[in-house]
Amino acid sequence: MQDFTPKGTAGALQEYDNKYVNVKKRSFAGLSMVLAAYKLFNYCHSYKEFKHKRPRKYH
């Protein structure tokens, strides 16, 4: 049975926090995902400028 008292709710939130938010093990994969998202965001943000600077082919 679940404990819906304030103490039980706080304990459940603390368990969730320790399991999913406060991850103890760090890896290169997490850092690379953050960097990839940053690069993608910047590219999408300045796509209009890149589009106008592209060399055109004359047919």
Structural description of this entry:
The protein has 59 residues and is an all-alpha fold. It has a domain at 24-59. It contains three helices and no strands. The longest helix is centred in the middle third of the chain and has 18 residues, at 28-45. It is elongated and about 75 Å long. The mean pLDDT is 79.
List the helices and strands and how they pair.
Layout: H1 6-21, H2 28-45, H3 47-52
Describe the structure concisely.
The chain has about 60 residues and is mainly alpha-helical. About 70% of the residues lie in helices and about 0% in strands. GO terms for molecular function: proton-transporting ATP synthase activity, rotational mechanism.
Based on CA inertia axes, which overall geometry fits? elongated
Taken as a percent bin, the fraction of beta residues is under 5%
Distance between the termini: 74 Å
CA radius of gyration: 23 Å
How many strands?
A: 0
Number of helices: 3
How would you sum up the major sheet? none
Structural class: mainly alpha
Low-confidence stretches: none
The percent of residues in helical segments reads: 55-70%
Mean pLDDT: 79
The helix-strand sequence is HHH
How would you classify the quaternary structure? single chain
Keywords:
59 residues; mainly alpha; 68% helix
